[in-house]
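Renewal narrative, Specific Aim 1. Our central claim is that a sequence can be written position by position from structural information alone. The example that follows is taken directly from our test logs and has not been curated for this report. It begins with the structure tokens describing the chain, in the order in which they were read.
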């Protein structure tokens, strides 16, 4: 009971110290609110408002129809260019796509010939380059077909395809991006907060005060883990209901208590990782530099940005030792697909095992550093 009381009081001390850190509180609120909203709505996986120009050397009704078919929200209103301006326009990064309709295009189409439409693409705009080219090809093909047939239809395909989209039928980009940004914020803050708290005590000399008291290193670490985990968990609950579900409108399909339980297990792993980093760094600037090569890979390669199965096999194996990979799978399965314990128990077990290893490693380093 004495150990439990020590852990409880040390955790309260952590919470009180956070209460007086006004910049930190502002950063927490900003990370769980505005940063998620701006990132989810400002970045997209679809083509949106892409810039396009047209070199119309045909000046025919068909070329005018092709021009009219390129419209918002996928593309901006096309601007006119001449053929000699193509190279300079792309070099200045003025537009992403340039469509060149050759002279005599409509005449060749009506004569049954196969003229070519040239599309120049700025490949540096990688977010739009590949998918935007596909959009333009489909739009142009649809207009040519409608012009030849007299109505917007195409010949019946040999094979009929039936596509059923589940879990996100409207394919709303903001739903997925909002959830993944929430996962990234939980990861980042659960690593930085306990690490910064330990370094702050180290710089102020209060760690030595704690060690000369009748306290053990596990008690000090567990207190920092539960206090900082409570702060991050509170922010996650606030963000999930008021930001992701409220502002972004993303539905929560699964069990909210199951998500909280999995988040607690994940926080046990990431806070242990944060304390481990704090025992390696000597001061705050070193911690900041150390967090960059740790947090960036585990968030970018965890499956939150691109599917894990799309990565090389060796990278998939390497990322399986990090808790973030399993948490991304767990959170997307519970919140988006409505999965239950029978489906996500493996991810929970993996996070618990990795968390135990990280906690023991942090405990070993903590004892060795402050011995």
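The sequence written for that structure reads:
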């Amino acid at each position: 009971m004495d150990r439990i009381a020590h852990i409880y009081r040390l955790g309260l001390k952590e919470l009180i110290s956070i209460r007086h850190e006004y910049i930190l509180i502002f950063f927490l609120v900003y990370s769980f609110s505005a940063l998620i909203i701006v990132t989810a709505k400002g970045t997209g996986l679809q083509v949106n408002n892409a810039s396009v120009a047209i070199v119309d050397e045909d000046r025919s009704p068909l070329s005018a129809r092709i021009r009219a078919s390129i419209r918002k929200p996928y593309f901006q209103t096309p601007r006119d260019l001449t053929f000699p301006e193509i190279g300079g326009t792309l070099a200045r990064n003025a537009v992403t796509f340039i469509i060149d309709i050759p002279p005599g295009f409509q005449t060749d189409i009506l004569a049954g010939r196969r003229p070519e439409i040239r599309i120049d693409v700025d490949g540096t705009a990688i977010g739009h380059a590949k998918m935007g080219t596909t959009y333009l090809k489909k739009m142009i093909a649809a207009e040519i077909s409608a012009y030849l047939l007299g109505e917007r239809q195409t010949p019946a395909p040999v094979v009929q395809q039936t596509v059923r989209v589940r879990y996100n039928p409207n394919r709303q980009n903001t739903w997925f991006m909002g959830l993944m940004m929430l996962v990234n914020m939980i990861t980042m803050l659960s690593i930085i907060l306990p690490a910064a708290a330990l370094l702050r005590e180290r710089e102020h000399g209060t760690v030595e005060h704690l060690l000369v008291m009748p306290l053990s290193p596990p008690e000090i670490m567990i207190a920092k883990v539960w206090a900082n985990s409570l702060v991050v968990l509170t922010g996650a609950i606030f963000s999930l209901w008021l930001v992701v579900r409220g502002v972004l409108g993303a539905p929560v399909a699964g069990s909210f208590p199951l998500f909280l339980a999995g988040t607690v297990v994940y926080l046990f792993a990431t806070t242990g990782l944060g304390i481990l980093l704090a025992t390696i760094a000597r001061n705050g600037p070193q911690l900041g530099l150390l967090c960059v090569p740790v947090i960036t890979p585990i968030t970018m390669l965890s499956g939150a940005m691109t599917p894990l199965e799309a990565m090389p096999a060796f990278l998939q194996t390497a990322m399986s030792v990090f808790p973030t990979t399993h948490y991304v799978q767990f959170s997307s399965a519970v919140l988006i697909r409505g999965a239950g314990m029978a489906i996500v128990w493996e991810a929970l077990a993996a996070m618990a095992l990795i968390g135990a290893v990280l906690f023991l490693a942090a405990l070993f380093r903590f004892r060795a550093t402050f011995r």
